[in-house]
Specification:
eight-stranded mixed sheet; two-stranded antiparallel sheet; 6 helices; about 25% strand; binds zinc ion
Length: about 270
């Protein structure tokens, strides 16, 4: 005979099951919430991008750089695009001796080859020497090229004054275990870009990757690290064309470089 009006054994079991299931879902939800909170707490890097000057499409490059880097690093950016499109500007931004305060890393993607004011140049290098890390891209290497002092070149880790023609250059890793290069394929070929001729690697610098001149077969560092005073520096001479800034290998290398110099690269 069936019981009516009471709780049968099976319906009690059913209620317990539903209760346990509900508990399980609450547990799962709390796990998801705490993972999300942990990710939120993961610190962003505060980055300053200094850009502008001659010969390149800095507006596009800045946008592509910010979007590309976001795939590998959480970054809060401030972009200073000043100095027009000439080769000899001095920007007022550096007048404040604390211009880099609050930033974990400064990315230099500017191009002012004919600015020679030594006091001005030292306003920049002094801050890096004291410990502000930097990533230096392409024409940063020809910036202050006409200056007599070597402070900027010591900061970069390389001296370069000219470049070869545009081509698609194969990149050979020479420090393949270096964490900045993780994810770079062994057979990476750049989009159309310029090969900068490296006259001198400063003793504090270490080449990570090289490319060969199509003119004379000489190899030149195209990615390197440097120690300048208390600061770590990562540099690459590639970055002429917009296509390079759209290249996922280039984007990843810059993101990992930014994390590495600021001591936040985890893998
Ligand atoms: Zn260029």
């Amino acid at each position: 005979m069936a019981l009516t009006g009471g709780f049968g054994v099976s319906s009690v079991r059913h209620m317990i099951m539903r209760f346990l299931l509900r508990l399980f879902f609450i547990f799962l939800l709390s796990v998801f919430v705490s993972i999300a909170q942990a990710e939120d707490k993961q610190e962003s890097i505060r980055a300053l991008l200094v850009t502008g000057g001659c010969c390149h499409n800095y507006k596009y490059q800045s946008k592509a750089l910010i979007e590309g880097v976001a795939k590998d690093a959480k970054v809060d950016w401030k972009v200073v695009n000043e100095g027009g499109r000439g080769t000899r500007a001095k920007i007022a931004f550096y007048d404040d001796p604390n211009w880099a305060k609050g930033f974990d890393v400064v990315v230099h993607n500017e191009c002012f080859a004919n600015t020679v004011d030594e006091k001005y140049i030292r306003k920049i290098t002094k801050v890096h020497k004291a410990g502000v890390p930097a990533v230096v891209i392409h024409c940063a290497m020809h910036t202050y090229r006409a200056a007599k002092i070597d402070d900027w070149r010591k900061f970069l880790g390389v001296t370069s004054r000219r470049h070869d023609h545009q081509s698609r250059y194969p990149v050979k890793k020479v420090a393949s275990k270096h964490p900045i290069l993780k994810g770079m394929p062994d057979n990476w070929i750049t989009p159309k870009d310029e090969l900068y001729i490296i006259e001198k690697m400063w003793p504090s610098a270490q080449a990570l990757a090289k490319s060969k001149s199509e003119r004379d077969g000489k190899e030149h560092a195209v990615a390197w690290t440097n120690q300048y005073g208390k600061a770590k520096i990562f540099g690459t001479t590639y970055g002429h064309s917009d296509a390079t800034f759209d290249d996922p290998v280039f984007q990843k290398m810059i993101a990992r470089g930014m994390l590495w110099v600021s001591g936040k690269l985890k893998d």
